[in-house]
Task: structure prediction
Amino acid sequence: MHRIPQMTVGGSALPTTAAFDVIDPATGEPFAQAPDCTPDQLDRAMTAAAEAFRTWRRDDDARRDCLRKAADALEGAVDTLAPLLTAEQGKPLKDAREEVGNSVAWLRYYADLDLPREIVQDDERGYAEVLHRPLGVVAAITPWNYPLILAMWKIAPALRAGNTMVLKPSPHTPLATLALGELFQQVLPPGVLNVVSGRDPLGALMTAHPVPRKISFTGSTATGRQVARSAADDIKRLTLELGGNDPAVVLDDADPQEIADLLFWGAFTNNGQLCLAVKRVYAPESLYDDLVEALAERARTVRVDTGTAEGALLGPLNNRAQFDRVSELVADALHHGATAAAGGAPLDRPGYFYAPTILSGLSDGTRIVDEEQFGPALPVIAYRDLDDAVERANSGDHGLTASVWSPDLDRAAEVATRLDAGQVAVNVHGLGVRPDLPFGGHKQSGLGVENGTWGLHGYTDLQVLTRLAKS
Ligand code: TXE
Result:
C-alpha cells in the first residue's frame, strides 16, 4: 500500500480519520487508500476557504504571482504526479505527463491573461463601468477520466478571478489531486485551495453546503441534474460540464486512409473516456466498407497495456462500473446484429482491459449509438443522404463537440456549423480544447462554459459602477 496522501485544509494537512481503498485499474486490486472526509472536516474546509477569500479577492497582481509559482511547482513535480495519475487512472505514463504539462499551461495562461477594464461611458455627463466581482467560495467536483487537467480548468480561472475553492476529486482517482493540494501548500496562501476526498455522498454534501456561492461540476448528466437541483435552493451559480455523444460526419469526397488516423484518435484518446471523444461515426455508403476497415486496422494494431509498459498507447478502463458498461453496450450491439470489425470483447487478463472495438452494420436506435459509451468502442453508421445524416447527428440530448471530414474545407465548414454542438471542427476532432477558447455543451451536455475569458467570467458576478460627472 502507498502512503495515504492527506487532505489540504487551511494550508496544511488534515489528519485522516477514515479512509477508503483506491483500485489499480490495471489489476482490479486496491493499491492505496485515500482519506474519507467527514462532514465536520468539510465544514472546516469551507470555513478556511471563506476566511481566505477576504484577502485573496483584493490583490490581482498577488494572485497572478501565486498562479505563476503554482505553475512552476507543478512543472517541477511531474515525476511524482504523473506516475500517481497512471497508477490510479490507468492511462499511459506519457499521457499522464502530458496531462500535468497541460495543467501547467492552463495555470500560466490564466496568470498572464490581461483583463481589460470595461468602461462603457467616461464623458462630460458621467462615468459607467462594468466590473467583474469574484463570487466567494467555489465548490469544485471532478471526474476520474482527466483528474488533474479538469481540476485545473476550475482552479486556474476561479482563483485568478479572486475566488477561493474547496475541490473534491472522484473517489476513483483521488490521489494525484490530493498530491496537488499538498504541493500547492507551499505556494498559495492558506485556505485559497482546499482539497478534500471521499465517496459520492461527499459531493452532495458540498453542493448543499451553505458556504459555496458557486458549484463547478464535471461529470455525468445524471449527477449534473442532481447538482443543479441542489444548487437551486440558495441560487448558487453553476457551471456544468457533462457528457457528450459526439458525432463525426464523413463526407463522400473524403479519403478513408487519409482521415483514419485522426478519426481513430479522436475516438480512442484516453481509451474513449473523454467527454469530447468521437462517440459515433456517420459514413456515406460509398466509403463505408473502406472506412470501417481502415479504422479496424488501427484498432487491431494499437498497443493496449498497463500504463507503465513501454510503448503502451492505451491502458485499462478506469473502473469496474465503466468496464461493465462498455462490455454491456458492445454485447447489446452484437446481439442486435452488429459486427465487430475489430475487438468486441474484454482482453483476457486481470484488470479492466477492453479490446479496441469497431462496430459496423448498426444504426441509430441501438444503445451504443444513442447513449454515451465512454470507452474504447466506436460504432460506424452508414448513411445515404447527407441531410438525413446531419439530422441523425443532431438527434439526442447531447451537444458537446462534433466534426466533419472532407478535403473540401468550405463544404465541410458549412456542414459543421449545422451541427448542434458547443465546438465543431473540420478534419480533426477536439482541436478547440485550448485555454483561450470557450468549451461547453449545448442541450444537456452542460451549462455555461469553461476556459478563456468566458470561463473566467463564469467565476464572477457583474457589477455596474456609475457616477455623475463633476458639475
Ligand atoms: O460520474 P459521476 P461516474 C459519464 C460517463 C460515465 C458516467 C458515470 O458516461 O459512464 O458519467 O461516471 C461526484 N452530488 N462521465 O459515476 O457520478 C463524484 O464523486 C455531487 C462523463 O463516475 O457524475 C465525482 O467526483 N457530486 C464525464 C463526480 O461527481 C456527486 C466524466 C463525477 O461522478 C454526486 C466522467 C452528487 N449527488 C463520467 N454523486 C465528462 N463530462 O467528461 C457523485 N458525485
About this structure: Residues 93-112 form the longest helix (20 residues). The CA atoms of residues 306 and 315 lie 5 Å apart. The chain has a mean pLDDT of 97. The two ends are 74 Å apart (CA to CA).
